[in-house]
Amino acid sequence: MGKGKEITTSLKKLDLNSNFMACTPSKSSLFSPTLQSPGLLSCRRRLGKSKPPSLVSLCLGVIGKNLQEIIAHLSDISIAFPPHIRMTIAAIARRRKMLCDEVIIPLADTSWEILDISGSEVTDSGLIEVAKTCKFLQAIDISRCNKITASSVSVLVEHCKSLRTLRCGGCPRSDYTAHCCLTLLKPKLDDTVKDSWEELDTVEISHSAESLRWLVWPKIDKDSLEILATECPRISVNPKLSPFGFRGKDVPIEAFPDTVLDDLFVREINPSTWAASGFTLKPVSPILSSSKELSLAEKFRLAFVERDARLAPKRAKNARQHQRRSDREWMEMSAEAKAIVLASQVSKSLHGRN
After folding, report:
1. What span, in angstroms and rounded, lies between the C-alpha atoms of 52 and 286?
2. Strands 236-237 and 114-116
3. Which superkingdom heads the taxonomic lineage of this protein's source (predicted)?
4. Where are the alpha helices (DSSP H) in the chain?
5. For the chain, how long is the longest CA-to-CA vector?
C-alpha cells in the first residue's frame, strides 16, 4: 500500500501533456473514410520504431508495469491525465489482462471516439457507465467479453448516437450476446401508450442503432446474417480488404477483423510492459474461436435475463397506466373524491369572480 501511495504522489507531479502528442494518433488517422491497408500500417510502425522512445512513453511503460499498485488510487490519479494518456493506460491494462470496471470507469473520457475492451473482465455495469460518459464513440470492440450482455449493449446504442463500428463475437458467450443484440440493430417502433398527445410528444417512439454501419462478427451464423441483410441492409458485416471498397463503400480501418483498435496508442510503448505478465496480444483470426459451447442451463439463464431486461420498461409503463386508471375510477366512484372536485371548482369560481 505504501508503494502505491508513493507512485500516486509521483504521478500527480508528472506532466503528460507535452511531448506525447507527437506520437498520439490523430482523429483523422483513426477514422479516415478512405481505405487503409495493413501493409501501410506496418510500414508506419517500422518507421516509428527507428525513433527513440519519448520520455513520456518510458514513464507510461513504468506505470504499466506497476499498474496493480495504483488501481485503488486510479480515480484520483486519472483526473490529471489527458484523454490520450488515459486511453494508453487502458490499452496497457487490457494487454496485461487487468482491464475491469475498476480500471475503465475512472479512465473513461468524454472525448474518446474508440473503445477497445476485447477479452477483458469489464461487466455490464462498467460498459453502461462508460457509455454514459463516452457519448461520442464511433467504434467499440466488445469481442471475447464473457461478462457483457445485450442489456449493456442496449444502453451503449442508446447513448452513443455516433457509433458506426461494432466488433463482437470471438467466444461462445460473446456470440450469444451478439445474437441477442440483433433486435437492437433492426429498425423498430415502440408500442407506446399515453393518455394524451402532450405526453406522447415527449416520448421517443423509435429506437435502433441508426448510425451503425459496420459489424465485425467473425463467426456469425447464417440465420443472423440473413436477418441483417434482409431487415437491416445499411449494416455491412465482416467487410473484406479490397482496393474497391466493400459494396461500393469505403471501409474504415477499424472495421477490418485484424485491426486492433487501441494499437496506435501503444506503438511507442515497450512490449515488455505487458509481456512480463505472460500475455502478448495477437490479432484474432476469424477462424479461431473456442470450441466450447454454452450449457443448456446457461443459455436458459441468459435468455431469462435478456427477456427480463427487455420487458422491464413495459412492466413499469403498465404499472403507471394501472395507477392512472385507479385514480380515475376513484375520482368517478368515490363520494369523497367528488366532493373534493366540486369544492375545487367552487373555489376556482369564487376566485374568478373576485
Report:
1. 35
2. unpaired
3. Eukaryota
4. 2-13, 27-30, 38-49, 55-65, 67-70, 74-77, 83-95, 101-107, 124-133, 150-159, 172-180, 182-185, 197-201, 222-231, 272-275, 296-333, 335-353
5. 89
Q: What are the grid coordinates assigned to 187, written together?
A: 429498425
> Who has greater pLDDT, 62 or 32?
62
Closest by CA position to 116, among listed 92, 98, 140, 132: 140
C-alpha cell at 100: 475491469
Lookup: cell for 152: 449493456
State how far the Cα of 274 lies from the Cα of 280, in Å rounded to an integer. 7
Cα 65 from Cα 68, distance rounded (Å) = 8
Backbone phi and psi for residue 251, each to the nearest 5 degrees, phi listed first: -95, 125
Q: Can you tell me the distance from the alpha carbon of 91 to that of 120, in angstroms, rounded to the nearest whole number?
A: 11
Q: Summarize pLDDT for 233-248 with one digit per residue, the tens.
A: 889 899 887 665 555 5
**How would you classify residue 98: left for phi > 0, otherwise alpha for psi between -120 and 50, otherwise beta?**
alpha
Please indicate, yes or no, whether the overall pTM of this predicted structure exceeds 0.70. no
- Report yes or no: 242 and 193 within 8 Å, Cβ to Cβ: no
Cross-strand bridge partners of residue 246: 249
H helices, E strands: number in the chain: 17, 5
Question: How far is the CA of 44 from the CAs of 23, 29, 215, 251, 290, in angstroms?
Answer: 12, 11, 26, 19, 33
**Rounded Cα–Cα distance for residues 273 and 64 (Å):** 6
Phi, psi torsion values for 114, nearest 5 degrees: -130, 155
- In contact, 91 and 114? CB cutoff 8 Å: no
DSSP 253: G
Report how far apart, in Å, the C-alpha atoms of 197 and of each of 31, 191, 201, 206, 322 are: 42, 15, 6, 16, 19
What average pLDDT does this structure show over 200-224?
74
Cα 105 from Cα 74, distance rounded (Å): 10
How many angstroms separate the CA atoms of 101 and 148, rounded?
A: 11
Q: Is the pLDDT score of 108 beyond 80?
A: yes
